[in-house]
Write a structure and sequence with these properties.
It is a single chain. By secondary structure, the protein is mainly α. It contains twelve helices and no strands. Helix 2 runs antiparallel to helix 5. It is globular, with a radius of gyration of 20 Å.
């Protein structure tokens, strides 16, 4: 197949890769630090005006409703500009060598993309505006003793924030790994999950594109159980939730940028891992960490593919 990108944009070995020591990795680490230290004070400054008059159930539903406006902001200032700038520098990090469907000269390809995207946008809005608040209600109903604290009196220290974020990440990844793998392992479940794989190339619209059954099974179960067990302060839940959401958008962005703040630390899963998963429907079942794929051996085919894709020579 003819490579649709200009030669200078289709470099299989970019100037640097995710996880490779470089100035870009340093920028990613700095971004993580800014995220960790800057967001809690911003939250605290507006906390009382937002949550002081809400009961715990309504407050949790508000917390779980935050992702929708955040998704709109991310698309506006990150994803869509990257897609339409068509910069040779950015395109060297594009994972797939295929042209983006919205730039295709093939009418059938563009029409199929519009149809899938229309369904995806409807599901994205439904996921954010309906499914997530429902999950918050389910958690409050079935685990009333595990409701999050919204009090300023027990506002977490940075040590507590770090500890709870680590516990949330490891437990959520473990649960998501198995619910996601389950959706691929049983035909009766995969018929729901395959909707998430309809895009031929990942793009940000596919991030929250799920059948309702798939959403509640592979997204809802890990989210509810994780927050019920860890029981973080609501501040920490927002902090971790936006991080998880941002990494999920990055998973589906279609570019393996080495400066992303989600990919520089040990056992962070590469963006191309999820692109590989979508392209072959196997392996790389984890979400943001490669830990569980490494432990259970479901990353071996991906590791071989990655070496070929990026021209890695050992």
């Amino acid at each position: 197949m003819k490579n649709p990108l200009p030669k200078k944009c289709a470099n299989p070995k970019p100037v640097t890769r995710q996880g490779e020591p470089s100035i870009f990795m340093l920028l990613g680490a700095i971004g993580s630090g800014l995220w960790f230290f800057a967001i809690p004070p911003l939250q605290k400054s507006a906390w009382e005006s937002v949550f002081s008059n809400l009961d715990s159930t309504v407050a949790e539903m508000v917390v779980w409703a935050i992702p929708f406006p955040y998704f709109l902001v991310y698309c506006t200032i990150v994803a869509f500009p990257v897609y339409y700038v068509r910069s040779p520098f950015l395109d060297q990090f594009k994972i797939s060598k295929e042209e983006w469907p919205w730039f295709s000269e093939n009418d059938v390809v563009r029409k199929e993309f519009r149809l899938v995207s229309t369904r995806a946008i409807v599901q994205d809005i439904t996921s954010f505006c309906l499914y997530l608040p429902v999950l918050a209600f389910i958690k409050a109903f079935f685990f009333p003793s595990r409701n999050m604290s919204f009090s300023l009196d027990d506002w977490p220290s940075y040590w507590e924030l770090a500890g709870d974020n680590l516990r949330l990440a490891v437990l959520h990844e473990f649960l998501f790994y198995w619910t996601h793998r389950m959706m691929h392992s049983f035909p009766g479940l995969y018929k729901f999950h395959k909707i998430h794989h309809e895009y031929k190339q990942n793009n940000v619209l596919s991030a929250q594109y799920f059948h309702p059954v798939d959403f509640f099974a592979s997204i809802g179960i890990p989210a509810v159980i994780t927050t019920a067990i860890v029981k973080p302060h609501a501040c920490t839940q927002i902090h971790f939730g936006l991080w998880l959401l941002s990494a999920n958008f990055d998973d589906h962005l279609g570019y393996a940028f080495p400066w992303t703040p989600f990919r520089w630390f040990p056992f962070s899963a590469g963006t191309d891992a999820h692109e590989f998963h979508h392209s072959v429907n196997m392996g790389c079942y984890s979400s943001k960490l490669s830990l569980w794929d490494w432990i259970f051996g479901t990353d071996k085919v991906y590791n071989n593919w990655r070496k070929k894709r990026w021209g890695i020579i050992e």
